[in-house]
Design a protein that fits this description.
The protein is mostly helical. The chain is built from nine helices and two strands.
């Protein structure tokens, strides 16, 4: 991206601990508004959304081997809800819709590395979101993914990780924005993502976390 939403000045209250990265990210994400985005941010977010929808539609007919078992599972076990399951002709719970869209958006392996299948179904959650909020969420997610990837100084795959690893964090912060989570809720989202993605022992280093009680689930 040509600009960096997470670096743009926003009101965050008292100066945070410079070493507390999760709080910094959560405060920036919770405070970010459409007016804080540059035109390049908005354009990149729109292109990512279109890319996700385009490769998803193509995959539903071009990748039967990968998707037929998942399609059968969704039709048999998908919970009833209000989120449309793209091309399935049914509406399911937003979390099932996230699962389905995540699968079809990557089945052909042509998806944008900073695209977000997670945020689109969440538009049907209990927290109504307009188009501008969706673009802010997508831009935040894109920015975080790119920052994580660039911080490694080499392709993610050179470290033995899939490119989807940074994408999990981008999806998490984007989803938090769509759901209008506050600073602490966004911070908790990033913490849960860190544990589920990397198997970190951070919960032991910072006493008070309840993650140990739910991590196996």
């Amino acid at each position: 991206m040509a600009s960096h939403p997470l670096e743009r000045p926003v009101h965050t209250g008292p100066d945070p601990d410079p070493n507390d990265l999760s709080r910094f990210l959560a405060e920036r994400a919770a405070a970010m508004a459409y007016e804080d985005l540059a035109l390049a941010d908005v354009d990149a977010a729109k292109r990512s959304i279109l890319d996700t929808l385009g490769v998803s539609l193509a995959a539903t007919t071009a990748a039967p081997k990968a998707l037929d078992p998942m399609r059968a599972y969704m039709l048999a076990h998908g919970s009833v809800g209000r989120a449309p399951a793209l091309t399935l002709g049914t509406r399911v719970h937003p979390l099932d819709a996230v699962f389905w869209l995540g699968a079809i958006s990557h089945a052909l392996d042509f998806d944008d590395v900073a695209g977000y299948a997670a945020v689109l179904p969440l538009l049907q959650s209990d927290s109504p979101t307009d188009g501008r909020q969706l673009l802010v969420a997508t831009a935040l997610g894109q920015d975080l993914v790119i920052r994580i990837a660039q911080s490694l100084h080499r392709p993610v795959s050179d470290h033995g990780w899939l490119h989807s690893l940074p994408g999990v964090f981008g999806s998490a912060i984007a989803a938090a924005k769509v759901l209008k989570l506050d600073v602490q809720q966004t911070r908790n989202t990033l913490g849960l993502t860190l544990h589920q993605t990397a198997g970190t022992m951070q919960a032991l280093a910072r006493p008070g976390s309840d993650y140990r009680g739910i991590r196996e689930g």
